[in-house]
Amino acid sequence: MFLLTASEMAQIDRITIDNIGIPGVVLMENAGKGATDFYAEIFPDICHRKVLIIAGSGNNGGDGFVIARHLQYRGSSSVRVMCLKEISGLRGDALINCEIIKKLKMPILEYTGEKYLPQITGELEDCDIVVDAILGTGLKSEVRGFYRQVIEAINASGKPVLAVDVPSGLDASTGKPLGVCINAVATATFGLPKIGQVITPGHNYVGKLKVVDIGIPDTVVEEFNPGRVFFEEKEARKLLKPRRDDSHKGTYGHLLVVSGSVGKTGAAALVCQGASRVGTGLVTLTIPESLNPILEVKLTEPMTLPVSETSDKSISLNALERIIEEAKTRSAVAMGPGISLNEETQELVRRLIT
């Protein structure tokens, strides 16, 4: 799955709407329904709890209106929508979905300035779950004023927050909070994951992340190809092929590990254990000869190859020819962890890699 910046996601949305012809309101509908489904996984009893959806003025708020409607479709009678901008100021797809929930006679609170902060605090105290649909991935500047106060009030309430696309206040491209940021327990993001949601510190604000399919054609994404991939379990599984019944450890390669020195035998052991865990058939560890007894005890499956050592008990340059000969019959060589900064050992490494 590709990993995008906020602007790249906006470009893909625009290509889908303008070039492919899928209306933005359709994408918004898919986003809101998908987010609702995810939130119901996080809180299976969400339709029996008091949910407060706090909507901003843009498409993020529009997604919130769709979520409110789909919660009602699921049987919820305790959904309240709080709009932080006058409804008369809404535009486009957000306005369309606001008008729909108005016709469904869902309660909409218009709390549009600092004078309403006591009422906002009261609503937060009265609800069980908050849905954050305030600010989306288009945010570029620091959150200030009324919106900052609302976000701080939400965080101070202690109520669990479900974020729409991105926690309000988070830079979706860098993962940095822009002044202040919602602390969400879960985030439903739309189309594709954004860089700022999976790196530090952004992932700490996102909570559990779910990528919601909103109907963007695969061909659009593949042609756009940002060149970044979010490596997930399903991608990893594609690399792990089933093993034949008549195979054996010799079928799956032999790794030569050149690692370890006095005080750093753990590094050598971890490399060998890691290689075995990912499926390497055979592992041989090249180790300073005086440390061999330690590694013989520490490692069960990997084999050891004791070689000459320096006065610092690191691998000596005198071991060069032996290591080269061993490497000729091995599938791969792993070198470095815990090998020390001894000058003679550094020269050994230089000669081995050249």
Describe this structure in words.
The structure is a single chain. The chain has 2 domains: 6-237, Rossmann fold (3-Layer(aba) Sandwich); 249-353, UDP-N-acetylmuramoyl-L-alanine:D-glutamate ligase (3-Layer(aba) Sandwich), CATH 3.40.1190.20. 42% of the residues lie in helices and 15% in strands. It has 14 helices and 11 strands. The strands form 2 sheets. A 7-stranded parallel β-sheet has the order 3-2-1-4-5-6-7, with helices on one face. The chain has a 4-stranded parallel β-sheet with strand order 10-9-8-11, with helices on both faces. α11 links the parallel β8 and β9 (282-288). α2 crosses α3 (59-73), α3 packs parallel to α4 (92-103) and α5 (117-126) runs parallel beside α6 (145-157). The longest helix has 19 residues, at 24-42. It is elongated and about 80 Å long. The chain starts with 5 loop residues before the first helix and ends with a helix. 39% of the residues are buried.
Can you lay out the helices and strands and say which pair or pack?
Elements: H1 6-20, H2 24-42, E1 51-55, H3 59-73, E2 79-83, H4 92-103, E3 108-110, H5 117-126, E4 129-133, H6 145-157, E5 161-164, E6 186-190, H7 195-198, H8 202-206, E7 208-212, H9 218-224, H10 233-239, E8 254-258, H11 265-277, E9 282-288, H12 292-298, E10 303-307, H13 320-328, E11 332-335, H14 343-353
Parallel strand pairs: 1-2, 1-4, 2-3, 4-5, 5-6, 6-7, 8-9, 8-11, 9-10
Helix pairs in contact: 2-3, 3-4, 5-6
